TrEMBL record:
This protein's record includes keyword Zinc-finger: no
Organism from which the protein derives: Lysobacter gummosus
UniProt key word Acetylation: no
Residues spanning the membrane: 131-153
Keywords, ordered alphabetically: Cell inner membrane, Cell membrane, Cell shape, Membrane, Transmembrane, Transmembrane helix
Name this protein carries in UniProt: Rod shape-determining protein MreD
Similarity section: Belongs to the MreD family.
Membrane topology classification: Multi-pass membrane protein
Cell location: Cell inner membrane; Cell membrane
Length: 161
């Protein structure tokens, strides 16, 4: 028995992640904004590695750079590093319970913040605020919801009654 593949879910989820990253957020909550593109890409690297790899992460990162006001190539580098780590540990991560996956994704989001800080340090940009490090906690908390939502859409289980 083969499952119906919903090919529209991948591009739609990435467009939704890009849109969420562009939504205005009050200054007070800005530090808690999760890295939507990283979370969605993490799901796809874990669940569909045949379609989503390092090249795909690079292209998605460039798209993220083009819609944001950041340095061209910064998100591309961040997402390639994230995809590389996920590919390396994918076999183990897939079989973790969702709570342990959330912890691993939180560590991955923390690594993303370290890469971002390193990029800013190399480019001699002003240091990032200390609240900048809270975002991985939000990503970790949202991972189970994002995973279950994307899994239901990808597998079509939202149609079952």
């Amino acid at each position: 028995m083969t499952r119906a593949r919903h090919h529209w879910v991948l591009p739609a989820s990435l467009l939704a992640a890009l849109a969420l990253s562009l939504l205005p957020v009050p200054q007070l909550l800005l530090a808690l904004r999760p890295y939507w593109l990283g979370l969605v890409l993490a799901y796809w690297v874990i669940e569909d590695p045949d379609r989503v790899g390092l090249g795909f992460a690079f292209i998605v990162g460039l798209a993220g750079d083009l819609v944001s006001d950041g340095l061209l190539g910064e998100q591309a580098l961040r997402l390639v590093v994230m995809a590389f780590i996920l590919q390396r540990f994918r076999a183990r991560l897939r079989f973790f319970p969702l709570s342990q996956q959330a912890l691993a994704v939180g560590g991955l989001m923390l690594n993303d913040r370290i890469v971002t800080a390193a990029i800013h340090m190399v480019l001699r940009e002003p240091p990032l605020p200390s609240l900048f490090w809270l975002s991985p906690l939000t990503g970790m908390a949202l991972w189970p919801v994002i995973f279950l939502l994307l899994d239901a859409l990808r597998l079509g289980s939202w149609r079952r009654r």
